Amino acid sequence: MKVLFALLMLTLVTQSQGEVIVRNDFDTPGADGSYRWAFQTDGGIYHEQRGSLQPAASGVPALVVEGQYQYTAPDGQLIHVFYRADENGFQPKLSKQ
Q: Is 44 left (phi over 0), alpha (psi -120 to 50) or beta?
């Protein structure tokens, strides 16, 4: 449900900025809870994410999410962020070009 909400919000934001989604891939959650989605706009915004349940230190499986997104900042710099979110929190790695 959270993934669908995020995609809906993204659609509203890109439409308000006049961008068109040129790629939209979505694999519904599998029986094991794993999922994958990706989208890209004609303005250069790109975001992909995948998630699955993984063994955790607590012994209870935890959702692990990995992904990346990129966009062009107002100053023209390309911003690219890789991230992982797991039982240790959100861990982004920023790359500026």
A: left
Strand order, beta sheet including 21-27: 21-27, 35-41, 46-54, 62-72, 78-86, 89-96
pLDDT at position 97, please? Answer: 66
Given this model, what pLDDT does residue 66 score?
97
CA–CA gap between residue 31 and residue 17 (Å, rounded)? 36
Phi-psi region of 90 (alpha: psi -120 to 50; beta: other; left: phi over 0): beta
What does the CA dihedral 39, 41, 44, 48 come to, rounded to 10 degrees?
A: -10
Q: 0.90 exceeded by the pTM? A: no
Which 3-state string (H, E, C) describes 46-69? EEEEEEEEECCCCCCCEEEEEEEE
